[in-house]
Amino acid sequence: MPTHTMRAVRLHEHGGPEVLRYDEVPIPVPGPGEVLVRVHAAGVNPPDWYLRGGLTTIPGEPDSTVSLPVTPGTDVSGVVEAVAADVDGLAVGDEVFGLLRFPGFDGSAYAEYVAAPASDLARKPAGVDHVHAAGAPMAGLTAWQFLIALGHDRPSPFQPVPHRPVPLGAGTTMLVNGAAGGVGHFAVQLAKAKGAHVIAVASGAHEAFLAELGADRFIDYTRSRPEELVHGVDLVLDTVGGPDSRRLLRTLKRGGAQFPVFPGDFDDEETAKLGVTVSLTQVRSNGAQLAELGGLLDAGTVRVAIDSTFPLADARAAHERAARGHIQGKIVLTVAQDA
User: Are residues 129 and 9 in the same domain?
Assistant: First the structure.
């Protein structure tokens, strides 16, 4: 292959996993504030299959920025190959990871090379390989911005007031619904690192996994309904969402809060009667926060669970795996490197 081209997965049309095509395209040139990253691994996330399925507008953004063909992907781990003249702090050869240009659909991480905003990147933790690093950015930052610190002052597309995380500590009890998934397994670990008591809700196959992550109590949702077993918790993080999300309000104490990662169907009168709040936010790229998370990854305080990996050329199979659900941790695409 000529040195000025690369392989990338692109969408020429919207549809099922079969529309993902493995193309030969020009290697991008980094613009102002950007670096060129040689990709070693790319994470697979819900916005990737939303884009594939036809969603082209991010909540809060008035217009679509998508024009076909488009390369999906936002999570990346790799090595800096070139640096724009105005970029400080990164150099050729640095190992980096990041969530690129989110919220938006122009991350273009499903490729052998990607032009990445330097501000979206952090140095990859030395003790974490590229596959695990690529699984961290979107899921880890989502958990971080819901639970630890929002990290920006952008208006929320979902509510008129800014999202405010609830302080977590030894006196806090948090229930995580969908605890074995990407965001959920980070949330369990971050809450435990703060000293909180964590109740994990997932299917029974994930019980041992979540115990290893530190969950204090496990509920198999296929056998029991959390709202019938749990009451008086301080915080619910619901990574599943949907019309059933509101039933988890009944697990909260008065003054408690529920954070749905995906918008649900809530009734203002019901939440007022229960004396609880519902708040959500939209994850945003943040290299500085990712560096903080990277420190926890390097220390072993938090780890990335990998559900499965697929070669970049087999992105279709990765999306088919995602569609089957019951994911434990993250799905990651790997990019072969020349010897």
Answer: yes
3-state secondary structure the chain: CCCCEEEEEEECCCCCHHHEEEEEEECCCCCCCEEEEEEEEEEECHHHHHHHHCCCCCCCCCCCCCCCCECCCCEEEEEEEEECCCCCCCCCCCEEEEECCCCCCCCCCCECEEEEEHHHEEECCCCCCHHHHHCCHHHHHHHHHHHCCCCCCCCCCCCCCCCCCCCCCCCCEEEEECCCCHHHHHHHHHHHHCCCEEEEEECHHHHHHHHHHCCCEEEECCCCCHHHHCCCEEEEEECCCECCHHHHHHHEEEEEEEEECCCECCCHHHHHHHCCEECCCCCCCCHHHHHHHHHHHHHCCCCCCEEEEEEHHHHHHHHHHHHHCCCCCEEEEECCCCC
pLDDT at 262 over 70: yes
pLDDT at residue 2 above 70?
no
* pLDDT value at residue 65: 76
Instruction: Indicate if the pLDDT at residue 3 is higher than 80.
Output: no
CATH number assigned to the domain comprising residue 246: 3.40.50.720
What is the mean pLDDT of the segment spanning 306-322? 98
Residues 66, 19 within the same domain: yes
Pairwise pLDDT comparison (313 vs 241), residue with the higher score = 313
* Model pLDDT, residue 327: 96
What is the C-alpha to C-alpha distance for residues 192 and 59, in angstroms, rounded to an integer? 31
CATH of the domain at 46: 3.90.180.10
pTM: predicted TM-score of the whole model, two decimal places: 0.96
How many folded domains does the chain comprise?
2
Rounded mean pLDDT of 87-104? Answer: 97
Model confidence at 338, pLDDT cuts 50, 70, 90, reads: low
Mean pLDDT of 261-271: 91
